[in-house]
Write a structure and sequence with these properties.
The protein is α/β, with parallel strands linked by helices. The protein has helices spanning 17-31, 48-53, 59-77, 86-114, 116-136, 161-189, 195-206, 238-254, 279-292, 341-344, 384-392, 412-427, 473-477, 480-509, and strands at residues 220-227, 263-265, 296-303, 308-316, 322-327, 356-357, 366-368, 371-377, 397-402, 431-435, 441-443, 449-452, 459-466. It is built from 14 helices and 13 strands. The model is unreliable at 1-13 (pLDDT under 50).
Length: 510
């Protein structure tokens, strides 16, 4: 018996050049849902053209559509990476685009095998599963572009993160797009058939408001973020620049001497000179701590030989002594170390990373100011899975110390603050987001930015923060939702494969 292996019919009008162009345009539009443009509702509809276009498509066409959407989205969102070179931008964007290509190919295959409805129902599960893999894949693990990040300022919409992490918020965003896509496809055939999926999309938009809002109810402390700033257009030596940055942080801290402060936070790279080897640097920090009469969390580096260093956060007592320290565990590939350096030494741009940082293996929680503070450094704050481990480990207030000065006036700084807003909601704790050149911010447990600074100013801001007395389900349990999505997606793929094989076997036998 001859087998019919031809592709199933596609929904009407999904192969038009116009729709293909819209897929590219919508990919770029999605980037504007993120900070700093911040047009969050764009994320509710930007995936629709891609979801419609891949239905019934061949693998090759789906891969092309995914690549078009992915390059338009990530290329626009991460354009600031080009500041350190277009080659680096292209490589990073290309790797992220792979996730969209895989998503599009799987969705097209499901639509051919099971129909449009099943494919669109599974789309949110598949997207979250791939996003999770993207966040943990060795070396290039990256979370930038997580759809939940685009919703950072919609306090009611990001509430579900307390239950399932930012993954659940992403799931809701994709579900809205899937519902609208189904309404569009059904509406092409019969307008009345579009009503139910359209109402489902509306319910998904307003539904997150039913979740409770986080609130910290523990002891209050007055926290100061010192943003010492970075000199711009610097023409002196690197050492002199690091001295100037230190002086800026010391001066801004001394100005707080008459304030009632319980904790001072200096950002990453505030102390770029090894304080264990340079007595002048150590004394400057001690002078600042004694003047303000409060403990300080200070971001700095320690030398570890001619080819290595350690990225640190130091806990300084009110008397100016180092009493605890945290060493960064999750380093930035090609930023703080070069993977396979010996094989890549021929690339000129890698001269910008002359030494490799050494990662630590375990987190640290500081006992300070009457509570427990979890420090993370820069890139680490972008990973919900990593941060929730620190909160589950006992942290009841989160410090994110970062340095985004490399990215100048780009969207990078605002996008980084958005991650801290998600971390606050995921864990139910306040966040102290300290950036050496801005944006620095205080974030409430519900994700609201209580106070923030502008870029490129030397300043200090003070706000009252509360320790959390309880933490969220996500902080206690972890990544149950992305794992559920991964299991559901894998189960569906396996089911379709087995069903297809049984059908082929039956037809051959017949």
């Amino acid at each position: 018996m001859k087998l019919d292996v031809s592709p199933q019919p596609t929904p009407p009008r999904t192969r038009t050049p116009f729709l293909t162009a819209v897929v590219g345009i919508s990919g770029a539009a999605l980037a504007f849902a993120f900070p700093e443009a911040g047009l969050a509702p764009l994320a509710w509809v930007a995936l629709v053209p891609l979801l419609v276009a891949v239905q019934g498509s061949t693998t090759r066409r789906a891969a092309g559509l995914g690549a078009l959407f992915g390059f338009a989205f990530f290329g626009t969102l991460l354009v600031w990476v080009s500041i350190v070179g277009w080659v680096g931008w292209f490589l990073l964007v290309s790797f992220q685009v792979l996730s969209v290509i895989v998503f599009s190919v799987i969705l097209a295959w499901l639509s051919r095998s099971t129909g449009v409805l099943t494919a669109l129902v599974m789309a949110p599960f598949v997207w979250v599963a791939i996003d999770y893999v993207r966040s943990v894949f060795p070396v290039f693990s990256f979370t930038w572009g997580q759809l939940a990040q685009s919703q950072h300022d919609l306090m009611w919409f990001i509430r579900p993160a307390a239950l399932g992490g930012a993954w659940l918020v992403t799931f809701i965003v994709v579900s809205i797009n899937s519902s609208i896509a189904l309404a569009v496809i059904r509406g092409m055939q019969r307008r009345a058939a579009a009503v139910v999926p359209a109402l489902a999309a509306l319910a998904l938009v307003v539904g997150p408001a039913l979740f409770p809002s986080n609130e910290a109810t523990g002891e209050s402390i007055n926290v100061a973020i010192v943003q010492g700033n970075v000199p711009r257009d610097w023409t002196g030596t690197g050492f002199e620049k690091r001295v100037r940055i230190l002086e800026g942080h010391v001066a801004s801290t001394l100005e707080l001497a008459d304030r009632d402060i319980d904790l001072v936070v200096w950002p990453e790279s505030a102390v770029g000179i090894d304080l264990e080897k340079d007595t002048f640097v150590a004394e400057q920090i001690a002078q600042a701590a004694r003047a303000v009469g409060a403990p300080m969390i200070v971001g700095g580096d320690l030398d570890a030989g001619p080819e290595n260093y350690r990225v640190m956060a130091f806990l300084i007592s009110a008397q100016g002594e180092v009493i605890d320290r945290y060493q960064k565990t999750h380093l930035v590939p090609f930023g703080e170390y070069i993977p396979g350096r010996a094989l890549l030494e021929w690339i000129p741009m890698l001269d910008q990373v002359p030494r490799d940082a050494i990662p630590a293996r375990a987190p640290v929680v500081f006992d300070v100011a009457g509570g427990r503070v979890a420090p993370v450094i820069s890139f680490e704050g972008d990973f919900g899975s990593l941060v929730r481990g620190r909160i589950d480990h006992g942290g009841r207030l989160l410090v994110v110390a970062t340095n985004t000065s490399t990215w100048r006036e780009s969207w990078a700084s605002a996008q980084h603050v958005a991650f801290s807003q998600l971390r606050a909601v995921e864990n139910g704790v306040g966040v102290i987001h300290a950036a050496v050149s801005g944006i620095s911010a205080f974030v409430a447990p519900d994700g609201e930015v209580l106070q923030s600074t502008d870029l490129w100013e030397r300043t200090a801001i003070v706000n009252q923060m509360k320790f959390a007395e309880s933490i969220t389900l996500y902080a206690r349990v972890g990544d149950w939702f992305p794992l559920l999505s991964l299991i559901a997606s894998s189960a569906m793929v396996i089911r379709v494969i087995l069903r297809t094989r049984r059908k082929i076997a039956a037809e051959v036998g017949g």
